[in-house]
């Protein structure tokens, strides 16, 4: 392969990883940025999305159907957890964070308990590989990228342009005033949480289409999600997409050019630097949800 | 209640919070008389080593109100310091103790200065990221850190010429260290310094307006927690004889935070109770590791939602409430528990 082909190849590989990271990051940026819930178990939501997909495909369902099931299941789980647990921590985000750590431990090990800790994979939903010049393009990666673009664009439009999005942003600006204007703030919080969870479910389905997953996949993925969300600016979907692209491509290159053992370090280093020098993110965001004094 | 405890000097009352812990530790030190199994002793030693680290975490979280998700990383710095000193310079246990305490304290400062600058919830995320970074660096450290397989420690731990590597002796030594950690953390809590930290916890702006250098004291508390962690790391490294990066990544940190919260971060008995409970509950309930982790996670969630001060404080409060049905009198406890609901919520 020529050097330029390798280069393009790495960009493509990086883009598909970036897609999954972006899906998590959009979920995190919406939930953390707009409701103030710091849910570190978001990576486990993703993992469970992957597990549901794996179960459904193993049971003979087609991949698209399995992905829809994953979205529904994780969205439902998000609803249950928000109503049952997180809504009691809205006033104390740190407590919500600690609770989510407990949730990580519970969700990981429940999955281990029922479906053992081994790697799980599904047959690739699309097997075609296109050869363009010297570059091999796996259609499954293209599928992941396209789905992510569509879903993120839809979420972006929902937040920025629709009535609901406007009401949501109003309730982030000033919860009390928004409530006085007749916006059902609590219901919006639940809604955002469920939307973010559903995105994680989709992310899990796409992830298992690309790579095998284990019950512990969520741990590293969620850190990347938080890194991207914070780098892009909390609550800023556009920023999350941009930061997700940067991180995905950096990771793709690093893996492609022989530094794969450092791949996981970039997100942490980038995040630490951004928090230090641009606490509102590179692209501007909410200053974090009503910081506890 | 007890006539002897009545002369209510503040020092006396403060001492009252320490005595039960020391009494329990004396009982624990007597356990080898019952000739317990090796398995029990190993479990107890691990629990004790955790408890030492937890006393550091309780100063940081319980007193200053800063939650660190990188505490296991500080333990790891101590453990690796001990292992590398022993390998490269043949330095044994006792000299490694101050060296590791120093190394962990310095690492805490390096992490703390930038992390505390960002403040708020972001601090927690920063400590988490630093913990993960340390594990990655240790894994990629090549021969110097032993990469993913980690390092071995050889050489016995001796005290006045006696070999302490025997399980029972090591157990007694760990109990002594736990007692020292408890006394140290008690001394910090009841010093003017402890009061300063609590002032920061309760209201940072007010504390700053009183002339307290909030930033410096927060970093100070973080460094203090590092000293405890470093000592715990040395004990851990010499006990296990082998250490590896995954032991000090962020998930062990989560378990440490969990233990201190289950026990109650503000009580002097909290770390002891949390460490013992988390170590022995699965034995008592006969759970396998997977089940016990599910139980821990669920406990943590329940504790945060229902008893935010931890199990022990919750039990004490319930007990006091029972007593308070009879003649009700306000008693001012200068120990670190807070009985007013507004404080408890924090």
UniProtKB/TrEMBL annotation, chain A:
It is a multi-pass membrane protein. Keywords: Amino-acid transport, Cell membrane, Membrane, Transmembrane, Transmembrane helix, Transport. CDD domains: TM_PBP1_LivH_like (cd06582). It comes from the Bacteria. It is found in: Cell membrane. Signal peptide: none annotated. InterPro entries: ABC_transp_permease, BCAA_transport_permease. Pfam families: BPD_transp_2. The chain crosses the membrane at residues 12-39, 51-76, 97-115, 135-156, 188-213, 225-253, 265-283. Belongs to the binding-protein-dependent transport system permease family. LivHM subfamily. This is Branched chain amino acid ABC transporter inner membrane protein.
TrEMBL record, chain B:
It is found in: Cell membrane. The chain crosses the membrane at residues 13-33, 40-60, 66-85, 92-113, 119-138, 170-189, 219-241, 253-282, 294-319. It comes from the Bacteria. Pfam families: BPD_transp_2. It is a multi-pass membrane protein. Keywords: Cell membrane, Membrane, Transmembrane, Transmembrane helix. The keyword Transmembrane helix applies. The keyword Metal-binding does not apply. Its main location: membrane. This is Inner-membrane translocator.
